Amino acid sequence: LQYVGQAIVIVANPEAVNGNPFYYTAPPFLLWPVSILAVMAAIIASQALISGCFSILTQAHALEFIPRILVLHTNPDEKGQVYIPEANWMLMVACILVTVAFQTSSNLAGAYGIAVTGAFILTTLMLWWVFRNVWKLNLPIALLIILPILVVDIVFWSANMMKLFSSGWVPIAMAVFFFLVMNTHNWGRKQENALYEHQAAEEARSLASVAGGAELIPVLTGQKRMNIICTAPGLLSMLRSGMLSRADTAAIFLTAREGCVPPSVRMLACAMGSLPKTIVLLHVKFADTPFVPEGDRYSFEALDVDLGLYSITMSFGYAEPLTATQFDVHATLGRIAKDKVKLHPALASLVPAATSRRALTQEGNLSGTLMEEVESSSIEGEDDLEVEPQHAQGRVTYVSTQKIFAPDSARHSLSKLRVRLYSQLVSSGRPSLHFFGLKQQEALEVSRIIFL
Known about the structure:
The protein is α/β, with parallel strands linked by helices. It contains 14 helices and eleven strands.
């Protein structure tokens, strides 16, 4: 409408072409009020740009199109109020560079026009996709609605393409850059998943051919033939083989896939010949749905109580406000452990204790009984818990895997560059211990080189 208004001014007063048609759209006595209103509208538009950027990056991260980023929700009561430090700094640097490079808004007019009209076309095409795939409209009705809009959008876009070489290349270059980054990261994640599926299939064949997982023993003896333990059945076979000693500790291994055993488990087993007595495989996933009901927030599975192996999966929607309270992994694990500790005493180490009192009492012929009361002020409705001493005194360590990707020698040059770019993207993301709010906890990070 604003463009149409300026066009009407030029038709009525051709001399306005030599000046700025924008200022001629209002009477002289309204020039300053309208100018102040335009400045205020620009400020509001900039805030909308920042908020939109934050929302898009949040969902892109949940859908695995960008590396792990920190999303801070400034208001737990408002889902859309988020702050992403990385995005805020990138926007600031980009605005400064564009301002210094183009100096005036007139020099940037071509970039603005191509960006806006290009967004028009993409929005119309997405509306077409919704019509056909979501609303299931028949083809004639969909074309009747979309074609007129698309024709107008293409007319505006083609008119702005005349300014491509002056400043219109800026939004196109930015779009190509972000597409390359997001597509490469999504491609890398798919390559990782394919590699895991291949390793899991090899492990399944090994377990099926040799009863008791005898093929897993070379992993511990250091021989050249090494099998990769990447699934829970493989880990159970290794633990049942008796080749490992079990330290009286508890460890929570962060894993990128549900039911997957992270490389850190096998690496610690190979290097130290020992694993903790209580092992929890923790997976935090983002669902394809915007929100996850609280009843489906987590799933718990005792893979083997005698061997102390458990699996916990936490779920979040890609559009959920990940507030500090809701996304506190350590506190959530404490609540889960409190609910399960009566049936699984090995999880007592995971219950957060605000106060811990130990009393040694003697009664009858008993030399002494160690009692421990575990109380947590952060958990509502908690009762005093009596746990066995060997579990109550254990320590909890969070173990994460830092992945370093290297290109396989069989790949061609462009594919190797893509792998290196993916490795840089992964390394530039927020470390998992920081992302999940575990940097204040006792933690261990294990590095591993993966060839893609």
